[in-house]
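name: query_chain
kind: protein
chains: 1
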Amino acid sequence: MRIIDLHTYPNTKEWIACQQPYVDALAQYWGRGWVAKEEAAVVQDFTDAGVESVLVALDLETTVHTPPCSNDYVSAMQKRHPERIIQAWASVDPFKGDDAIREAKHAIEDLGMLGFHFHPIMGHYAVNDRALYPLFETIDALKVPVMIDVGTTGMGAGMPGGMGAKLRHAHPAAIDELAADFPNLTILAAHPGYPWVDEMTAVALHKGNVYWELSGWAPKYFPAQLKVDIRARLKDKVMFGSDYPSLPYERILREWAELGYKDEVMEGIFHGNAERVLGL
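structure:
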């Protein structure tokens, strides 16, 4: 069965460096840290797991004052390995104003990237902030999708003040409002959205332009109602993501199999919905 992984990171030293000091805090919270790999080893991880990866760029420069893991960097990595890395999500720092808009156009018009990923908690913003709407108007005009993290994160967890990050920035209500204001914008919520899983379910069901990929969690820990909804009323909405390198593929794929869904449901989750909605 084809497996499209919609949420993978480069896992190279450039990607890890762009998130300091969040990475050090996460290592303390988890009791283990990320170890950077060479590009070839990252691609081998995708190959061994049998997944077709979509990479994610990351720009947190305004928040943590580190160089981005840029769109040019990630797009070049994708283009070197198109048989295994089939596309890439661009990233723009919304606080960069006109520069962010110019970078958004560059990512799509020059680099041919899939769309844009937003990490509201790490970036210290909510996507329904009207100050960011000129950027979303640009993205809407470019006719590409966005992927937006929803729910809590390990980034800053356990640190005094959460390192300034505010969980409410990633509440499903922000996605609900953005989807209502931009009805032609395809929005993919990323992660299960704890502790607002039911709220995220409601948004995904109510807004026809909102979909959901469930990366970053071991499937056996999905809430009971979500496990039911995945095979029923959400079966045409849910897509697969891993949040690589956060969890090992062996565990993620094994636990998806242990949920016991019919093949037709898994076909949709692993590739059919992404093919239909995102054109992959």
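note: The chain has one domain: 4-278.
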